[in-house]
Amino acid sequence: MSPLTYRQEAGKKIMWDGIVYNSAEEADGKAEGYRSHGFEVYRFSEEGKHFVYTRRVSQEVPSV
To answer: What is the C-alpha to C-alpha distance for residues 8 and 5, in angstroms, rounded to an integer?
Structure first.
C-alpha cells in the first residue's frame, strides 16, 4: 500500500510524513511531536495502517 503523498483537507494541502505506522498509538505519538513543533496534524487509517499528514504555514522570511 502506498498512500498519497499529499491530500486536500478542509481546503488545505497536507503532506504525508512518509512513514507507515502499524499502530494508532505509534502514529499518535509522532503526531504529538509534530504538534509541539507548530504543525497542524491529521491522521488517517486504511487497511490497518496509520498515516500522519502535516501542514504548517511558512513564516515570512526577513529581507536582508
So the answer is: 11
Pairing state between β 40-46 and 12-16: unpaired
What is the band of 62 on the pLDDT scale with cuts at 50, 70, 90? confident
Q: Is 11 left (phi over 0), alpha (psi -120 to 50) or beta?
A: left
pLDDT tens column, 27-53: 999 999 999 999 999 999 999 999 999
Q: How large is the C-alpha radius of gyration of the chain?
A: 13
SS3 content of the chain, % helix, strand, coil (to 5): 20, 40, 40
